[in-house]
Amino acid sequence: MMKKLKHHNSGFVLLYAVLVSGIILSVGLSLMNLITKQITLSSIGRNSQFAYYAADAGKRCAFYWYASYYPVFGAPANGEMVEASELRLPIELFKAVEGGGIKIYCEGKDIAVAQEKSDDNLTLTSKFNLDVNAGDQISCVLVEVERKMDQATEEVNTKITSRGYNSACADLNNANARRIERVTYQIL
Fold first, then answer.
1. What angle do CA 68, 69, 71 make, to 5 degrees?
2. Which domain holds residue 87?
3. Does residue 3 fall inside a structural domain?
4. Does residue 56 fall inside a structural domain?
5. pLDDT, tens digit, for every residue of 58-99?
6. Per residue in 99-114, pLDDT tens?
């Protein structure tokens, strides 16, 4: 007499359940990784806009004062560049500025402008920084106005360089892996 062998298939259901849950878990983890990267990219784009608009605001502020009636970024005189503090400008431009330099008004704030001449007195560099408010975001801008005189022709070339950041000026010394810098410049 022959005996019939019985096959038990009860273990396959558990194996299929583990296999299906593993596939669903790996798809879920892949989607989570993709979504995290997309959120990071969108925040970088947003912060890049804040940095760019801060740089643009700084450049426009410097250009406004460059084109104003008062030569706050210096002027040529007697074959060399002369600092604004040596010119006869209204006293309002100088009050509350320690260590020389002048002050300008941008973004609703008085801003101190530091000025430095080169050794040959042909280049005058003016620097200032300010925090720009855009809603709840504070962005920093560092502006440098370089006026260089050609001694032969006494022609003055001006370059405005504006560096915008997506963080406040007080935070620039702190390490921040997500800090973004955007630079704009204008040659006059």
1. 80
2. 34-187
3. no
4. yes
5. 999 899 888 877 777 777 777 777 777 666 666 666 554 555
6. 556 788 888 888 888 8
